[in-house]
Amino acid sequence: NAGVTQTPKFQVLKTGQSMTLQCAQDMNHEYMSWYRQDPGMGLRLIHYSVGAGITDQGEVPNGYNVSRSTTEDFPLRLLSAAPSQTSVYFCASSYYRVRRNSPLHFGNGTRLTVT
Amino acid sequence: TQLLEQSPQFLSIQEGENLTVYCNSSSVFSSLQWYRQEPGEGPVLLVTVVTGGEVKKLKRLTFQFGDARKDSSLHITAAQPGDTGLYLCAGGLNRGGKLIFGQGTELSVKP
């Protein structure tokens, strides 16, 4: 099983550039989410979706856009990259029962550097 | 402001020692999950606790959910070098199904 696939693994951007981080899952999970991981900050929720056509903001949504046109895909768009967006980005999915006992399945992350 | 406070942030111990990691909040969670993350990979679920006062054991790891469902702990008995990694607690919120993570505990177990 592929699980959650994130591309690219590494990316370097210049300030002001835009890009899309791709995330795809093959487990038919309703819930998908994006987190960023910074030293000493744990994982912070950027955006999430409970199904196709439905998205909502997490703790740190500014500077990022998402859309969910299919169950499988949940791309994260950086509109105008800033050095503060240098981070490791994780996509995660689960059945839509996160409040009970459905685990999040994570991709292996995208390491983004903005210069 | 961090909704989930995890402590300690760093822990370096010798093989065979015991340790406890704490996860505290002023919020009530519907569930509490613990994950372990290795370098270059995403976190992987260790356990989920959903009932106040619940205790779960996974070999040498013991997980406890506080009675009020605001805090949790992870206790490792006789730590081994293979336990080295980043341990993350995550609380499930009733509103919107979001999962909020603590800052993580970087554990290093030296042989």
Short summary of the structure?
The complex is a heterodimer of chains A (115) and B (111). Chain A has 115 residues and is mainly beta. Chain A contains no helices and 11 strands.
SSE string of chain B, helices as H and strands as E? EEEEEEEEEEE
In percent terms, what proportion of residues of chain A is strand? over 45%
Structural class by sheet pairing and helices of chain B: mainly beta
This entry's quaternary arrangement is heterodimer
Describe this structure in words.
- The complex is a heterodimer of chains A (115) and B (111).
- By secondary structure, chain A is mainly beta.
- In chain A, 0% of the residues lie in helices and 50% in strands.
- Chain A has strands at residues 4-7, 10-13, 19-25, 31-38, 42-51, 54-57, 64-66, 76-78, 87-94, 105-106, 110-114.
- Chain A is globular, with a radius of gyration of 13 Å.
- The model of chain A has no long low-confidence stretch (mean pLDDT 92).
- In chain B, β4 and β5 form a beta hairpin.
- Chain B is globular and about 40 Å long.
- The chains are: A mainly beta (115), B mainly beta (111).
- Chains A and B meet through β4 and β5 of A and β4, β5, β9 and β10 of B.
Give the SSE layout.
The complex is a heterodimer of chains A (115) and B (111).
Chain A: E1 4-7, E2 10-13, E3 19-25, E4 31-38, E5 42-51, E6 54-57, E7 64-66, E8 76-78, E9 87-94, E10 105-106, E11 110-114
Chain B: E1 5-7, E2 10-14, E3 19-24, E4 31-37, E5 44-49, E6 55-58, E7 61-65, E8 71-76, E9 85-92, E10 99-101, E11 105-110
Parallel strand pairs in B: 2-11
Antiparallel strand pairs in B: 1-3, 3-8, 4-5, 4-9, 6-7, 7-8, 9-10, 9-11
Features:
heterodimer; A: 115 residues; mainly beta; seven-stranded mixed beta sheet; four-stranded antiparallel beta sheet; 11 strands; 50% strand; B: 111 residues; 53% strand
